Structures
1.
Amino acid sequence: MDSSHLDYSRKIRAAAVQISPVLFSRDRTTEKVLDAIAKAAKEGAQLVVFPETFIPYYPYFSFVQPPVLMGKEHMRLYEEAVTVPSAVTDAVSNAARSHAIVVVLGVNERDRGSLYNSQLIFDADGTLLLKRRKITPTYHERMVWGQGDGAGLKVLDTAVGKLGALACWEHYNPLARFSLMAQHEQIHCAQFPGSLVGQIFADQIDVTIRHHALEAGCFVVNSTGWLSPEQVAQITTDEKLQRVLSGGCNTAIIGPEGNHLCPPITEGEGMAIADLDFSLITKRKRMMDSVGHYSRPDLLQLQLNSQAQRSLIDERLPETDTTSNPQYAPLPEISYGLFQSLT
């Protein structure tokens, strides 16, 4: 779709889900996802966003256990992780198609011997449009997940408009955010784990997502997870450590002018729902379009390597052979100073 002909007159309804997993169970957590999709659709939502690595659960154990002691829990996460494609992705795809709803879902993805923090985006017809991996796991997460690459930094044409997504502290990488902004995302889907660090994390999430909405001139639909006190006790019996597995929840929907479009959810399970009026994007960008009239590509440009990284490249195929080996296919140019390159 030509970005100069985007429809800014439409209105859609979005839902951000704050929800707790069924700890240690991929299948039962998937059932909660399917139930929430149906509930969001019943409320008229055309887009539903779930928390970071929600299936089977965020690796909270890595936040409270030293690496030398977390092998058992790490292995259990391997056993319950999601492969793509699988029965889990088939079930979510069927639900998206059945309810004609776009689904953004965080999963622990298992790819043979590695785990990744992955975001799956299903269109309203059930098509899995994108599987993207968090480009840099944060601090304790580096003992759990591998790194993603630039292949997932894409804005997608979906049934609800041009949609992009990042997970958690990827929002502290301004160039990652700019790569989506320059592709003219209209809706940005953000995911955080929730139930971490306390109120300071909830406050930081609020600042982060509102700033992105203002800077990008887009809507932000943000989902965080939640743990009950009983679930916290399942993760650790140390009362001092239990205190750091609380708070940090801020499920919210933000407009292009940085305002909340519905009350945020900061505790317990629930669903934030709001109508997104795309004319507000134009209203914001008329004043400040950070990838248009307010940009200076003659001074500042972003170079994005959107090539999927591989451990093995078959050099028997010449680099000019773009038909039999898409790895060497030329990459499209993105406007407003965002360029593609191969390394």
2.
Amino acid sequence: MIVGVPKEIKNNESRVGMTPAGVFELVKNNHTVYVQSGAGDGSGFFNKDYQQAGATILDTIGQVYAMSEMIVKVKEPIAEEYDLVQEGQIIFTYFHFASSEPLTKAMIKQKGICIAYETVEDEEGTLPLLTPMSEVAGRMAIQQGAKYLEKPAKGRGLLLGGVPGVAPGKVLVLGAGVVGIQAAKMAAGLGAHVTIMDVNMKRLRYVNDVMPPHVVTDFSNEYSIRKHIKTHDLIVGGVLLKGAKAPNLITRDMLKEMRPGTVIVDVAVDQGGCVETTKATTHEDPIYIIDDVVHYCVANMPGAVPYTSTVALTNVTLPYVLKLANLGWQSACEKDKSLQKGLNIIEGKVVYKEINEAFNWDTPVLV
């Protein structure tokens, strides 16, 4: 199969869909790999590295799309890329369709085979291709939240870990999934007091077992959330519904109950956000303020640490890329049920029910 790796063109996105190590494995399996010139520069992988691994370097993104049977990338195609997608071409990437109707309609129109990293699901019900980026984003949420709690960034002027004689900050984490646990771990490591909330008691019991005593759990409901937001300094939104839009756990009116300078980091922004006032921002312009509450809602948080993120992502995507290349998408998905769950749009037909539900469409679900 001919596999293409284009340069990411989303704002401040420095990750790349595949490392030279991944290219080497594909070439070893007799596949052809085209990499756009400069695609890996931001992650510290250069043209010569890809060439040494066996890739052919192409000058433009248009060439990569035109000459490839499968495109492997990181972020969803943006408007400039929509028309480059060819009928029957496999696009393997993060899509997050439920948060973008224009993207969904564009991919339906182009009739490609859209396989979404974030909905590939293994037998245990986990999301193996989302996990490493969730780990990065969860850890970064605390790193960024601590920074924006500083007064020059319009935060409360609070050191998250405190100092002797001064109490540490308080962190509220919504969701005890991968993002939430990684955020809690980082915040606890800094010495902050952490409250983590979820509706899944099994997850809360797990957190209670593995976290230090200054990480406490609480069952998530609106009453409890309203209580905690009044006293916590940093709020991390880490709620995920597989392939669907995130629920609004914090509504606009709740902002007035928070102290001025409170910081919200909504990691769920890719799925529409779990805060009503969330709107996607970029690393170039990462925050905005509503009712004296600082919102950090960067839609590609792991893109700020592209080397770590690219290596972590290729580690988990490569086995699936090899299956798709070796067998073709139909046979690969028939033999691997977890990969089959990654199918979102097939040649103009939506086949993942949560997408239809997000837009209230009546399109029949095929798989």
